[in-house]
Amino acid sequence: MNRNVILSCLCAAGVSFGAHAAETAPVAMEKQIEVHGENYVPGMGEIMGATQMRHAKLWFAGKAGNWDLAGYELDEIREGMDDAVKYHPVFKKDAPIADILDKFIAQPLNDLESAIKAKDNVKFRKSFDHLTRACNECHQAVSQGFIVIKRPGTLQYTNQEFAVRKN
Ligand code: HEC
Question: Whose CA is nearest to atom 35 of ligand 1?
């Protein structure tokens, strides 16, 4: 049955469509948000897609000496990694994400944090490259070695200011 047929059936049956929809729509939306909030599990690929964005933004924030923004992006990367462990403790049979994560990424994340705190440009670049290597080491460890992360070239997020706000 196509949509027009369904609609005309409803009208013919005297269903007051508009009024009913207006009453139930907000409730339905609330339910949807509830369900989404409690049961929604982000896929590993989704978490990683967001991590890729953060990784790029982190680079441009650090490059611009915007340490507040860099610190924020680093926190977001950490949260993504926490989600990876929480939702995908084992990625495909023999890849215990929690162990692998600790092995590869804990150190570069901590180094980056102290570089950002110290507003140390040289240390930032070094630990950023270390983080990038760690991304790839993990990809290799979980048989995703074809996903290769590198320093970003040009900034893609032209709708966001990366320089420190002047006022
Ligand atoms: C714990 C190991 C681990 C670490 C650390 C890790 N990744 Fe991943 N990454 C994965 C796995 C597993 C996949 C494959 C996900 C899938 O197939 O659903 C993946 C996939 C990806 C993808 C492909 C997503 C897509 O849809 O194209 C990107 C991009 C990515 N990771 C970026 C990063 C970046 C950037 C870092 C470092 C900041 C990083 N990853 C660190 C395990 C890791």
Answer: 52
> pLDDT for 110-150, tens place per residue?
999 999 999 999 999 999 999 999 999 999 989 999 999 99
Compute the distance between CA of residue 144 and CA of residue 91 in angstroms, rounded to an integer.
Answer: 11
| Whether the Cβ atoms of residue 109 and residue 47 lie closer than 8 Å to each other | no
Determine how many CB atoms are found less than 10 A away from the CB of residue 114.
12
pLDDT by residue (tens digit) across 83-113?
A: 999 999 888 776 788 888 888 999 999 999 9
Q: Residues of CATH 1.20.120 domain(s) within the chain? A: 44-141
Does the CB atom of residue 139 touch ligand 1 within 6 A? yes
- Domain range 44-141, CATH class: mainly alpha
Ligand 1 contact via 115 beta carbon (within 6 Å): no
Alpha helices for 3-120 (secondary structure H)? 3-12, 17-39, 44-63, 67-87, 97-117
Closest CA to ligand 1's atom 2: 138
Ligand 1 neighbour 50 (Cβ under 6 A): no
